[in-house]
Amino acid sequence: MESDFLKSLVIIFGASALVVFFLHRLKIPSIVGFLVSGIIIGPYGIGLIKETHSVEMMAEIGVVLLLFTIGIEFSMAKLTRMRKAVIAGGSVQVLLTIGFSAAASFLVIGDINRSLFFGFLIALSSTAIVLKMLSEKGEIDSPHGRTMAGILIFQDICVVPLMLITPSLAGETINLLDIAMKMAKAALIIGIVLLSARWVVPGLLHQVVRTKSRELFITTIIVLCLGIALLTSKFGLSLALGAFLAGLIISESEYAHQATADILPFKESFIGLFFVSVGMLMNTGYLFGNGLQIAVVVGFIFIVKIATGVIAALITGTPLRTAIHAGLGLAQIGEFSFVLAITGKASGLITEDFYQIFLSSSVVTMMLTPFVLRTAPSVSGWLASRRHLKRAGRLKKGAEADGFPRRREGHVIIIGFGLNGRNLARVLKEAEIPYVILEMNGDTVREMKKKGEPIYYGDGTSKEILHKLGLGKAKLLVVAISDPASTRNITYIGRHENPDIYIIVRTKYLVEVDDLKALGADEVIPEEFETSVEIFSRVLHRYNFPSNVVMDMIDKIRSDSYTALRGMVLPKKLMFDKCEWLPDIKIESFKVMENSHIIGKNIKDLQVRKKTGATIIAVRRGADIFSNPEPEFKFDSGDIILFTGERKNMNAAINYFRQSSLS
Questions:
Q1: Which of 155, 202, 242, 375 is least surrounded, with the fewest CB atoms within 10 Å of its CB?
Q2: What's the 3-state SS for 280-299?
Q3: Is the predicted pLDDT of residue 221 greater than 60, yes or no?
Q4: Mean per-residue pLDDT for 29-48?
Q5: Which DSSP string do the residues of 407-472 spell out, in sequence order?
Q6: At 487, phi and psi to the nearest 5?
Q7: CA–CA separation, 55 vs 305, rounded Å?
Q8: CA 6 to CA 11: how far, in whole Å?
Q9: For the chain, how far is it from start to end, CA to CA, in angstroms?
């Protein structure tokens, strides 16, 4: 028995590796590769694996670990900010999907109970696929990412009442008291779990960390993840929702990042099993024998789910483009629908034939999801720009656009009011430089309006809104949002509409730099390399590299779109290798360049101490070191000056030495 299970794992991982590798060469997402692997090796494929029960159990662990890591990336504060998307957006999407699906299927089958159950199956989307893809693309915190995540969280909560109502649709006795009790228990356990985030878990993790045992820390994290998931499932909630809550708990502690790093290898392995197990469910013979019927069902699912997703997002105040993007992302069938389908089949609500149609259609929607999400930015942008669709969002836009500034020039336009946008606005306010802010979070706009910020609600990819902010007469455009597709669109519009504006763009990844430059950005600041620049400059500073050399290196890297950092040759031997002879004081160094104004001048002529407050304590020339040089000591090109003093004095000395380079 054990050897059979091990053999199944070897087949699964071996086949998956080959298929994913081959499809990767064709630039097809790995999720599709795992699904295809399951179809090939499963009982309806070549039959290498016929018993799928044990694989499905491990796959469920994969979903649990995925939702756990997603929960860690969130926080209670972020979830609170998303309450509109969770409650309003989620409830509207689920109710509309059930209503439309039930009405359409009733026209075909004429049975209200079965029609409602079909609506239940369609209402749920795939949390595993959508959140995984958003996480990989760094878009969970983007406007469309927050909308999708909020609706998905609500759908996972809805699994509880849907599972409780399903038996009653099959004609069994409805016990309203029993349903109410189970719902109350579910609400109670969610409350207890969330309260423990503040009072129990942080203290527990602190005690575990004090032992300095990495093994104990990893074990505790896994116990918390699986234990809370199991606890919530005992009260009728889904395992995945419990794992998400467990992640939320740990996100409130200072150990969240380490927990993510430790759990990541387990998650990636098990989540692959989940997608393989889904692929194994597809009966390829039935798919090809009923292709037209399944294509119609898939088309119906996409139309209904995209429409309800867009409507739900619009009701929460999301701009049209973002709403369409979110609707496209939620268009597939979810993994928990399979659980519902099995329950409905056991209760006699659906026949074997219906079950196979639903199963095949669901897997097809899952396989198409990566491609739909890949094209969603361009599709949503194109659709939102159509005149007849613009009217859908015009009422809200028009009401909010009335408050836009009428006359403004020479100002800075800030797109996005996250951490970077807030810091920039604070500096501009101090410097008395005029600026306006565009933000898509309505709550943030209302809150900051009350504090006097010149902030307005709107979508930066709209030419009309950018012109209302004075794009034609603005001096700078700063794009600081977490949406790569929107960032590219805004950059292109900004450059096309105002060729003279200076555009600064923030991006998460280095791979975006060249594309954004080509679209018209003057400066692109990738977070990845800015962190690297900050680290290496501090490291070199601790080794007494001349500050001007470090500054020149940083300027060179930034001016060349960070390409220099990939193949940069660092100057050698510019630091004092041995400084045991120096007292334990703060020191700074400076390299005399060929065009420096101090070449040929002596210390007495320069009056460094009098003009800057810093004291020269040594000069290195080649292999020679001149300690406490005489006032008549003359500087030459290549000399490295070592000086000390208070930080402000040393900074003044660096600026004094660099004057020739700046002139």
A1: 375
A2: HHCCHHHHHHCHHHHHHHHH
A3: yes
A4: 84
A5: S--S-EEEE--SHHHHHHHHHHHHTT--EEEEES-HHHHHHHHHTT--EEE--TT-HHHHHHTTGG
A6: -60, -45
A7: 30
A8: 9
A9: 80
Contact criterion met (CB below 8 Å) for 29 and 370 = yes
Quote the CATH superfamily of domain 578-663.
Regulator of K+ conductance, C-terminal domain (3.30.70.1450)
Closest CA to 510 of 557, 563, 555: 563
Strands of the sheet containing 455-457, edge to edge, are: 455-457, 435-439, 412-415, 476-479, 502-507, 523-526
Instruction: Tell me the per-residue pLDDT of 573-590, one tens digit each, with 9 for 90 and over.
Output: 444 444 444 444 567 888
The three-class DSSP label of residue 625 is: strand
* Angle 182-186-191 from CA coordinates, rounded to 5°: 145
Across 352-384, b (16+ Cβ under 10 Å) vs e yields: eebebbbbbbbbbbbbebbebbeebbeebbebb
Place of tokens 């049975």: 111
Tell me the C-alpha distance between 649 and 656, whole Å. 10
Q: Are strands 455-457 and 435-439 parallel, antiparallel or unpaired?
A: parallel
To 10 degrees, what angle do helices 291-315 and 112-123 make?
70
Instruction: Locate 261 and state its tokens.
Output: 């790093």
Check residue 201 and give its pLDDT: 77
Q: How far is CA 601 from the centre of its chain?
A: 55
How far is the C-alpha of 483 from the C-alpha of 416, rounded, in Å? 10
- Residues 521-544 have a mean pLDDT of 72
Kindly tell me the burial class for residue 386, based on how many C-beta atoms sit within 10 Å of its own C-beta (0-12, 13-18, 19 or more): exposed
- Domain map (residue ranges) of the chain: 2-384, 395-521, 578-663
Which CB contacts under 8 angstroms, 24+ apart, belong to 23-30?
Answer: 28/370, 29/133, 29/370, 29/371, 29/374
Q: DSSP 3-state assignment of 634?
A: strand
Domain 2-384, CATH: 1.20.1530.20
Average pLDDT, stretch 233-243?
73
Tokens read off for 606: 């320069």
Look up the pTM and report it: 0.66
Task: Output DSSP code: residue 599.
Answer: B
pLDDT digits (tens, 9 = 90+) for 131-185: 888 877 777 778 888 889 889 888 877 876 787 777 777 765 556 676 677 677 7
Burial of 26 (0-12, 13-18, 19+ CB in 10 A): exposed
With bands split at pLDDT 50, 70 and 90, how would you rate the model's confidence at 401? very low
Lowest mean pLDDT, pick from 102-116, 192-206, 318-332, 394-408: 394-408
- Identify which of 128, 169, 102, 109 has the alpha carbon closest to the alpha carbon of residue 345: 169
DSSP structure class, residue 475: S
> Looking at the domain that runs over 395-521, which CATH code has it been given?
3.40.50.720
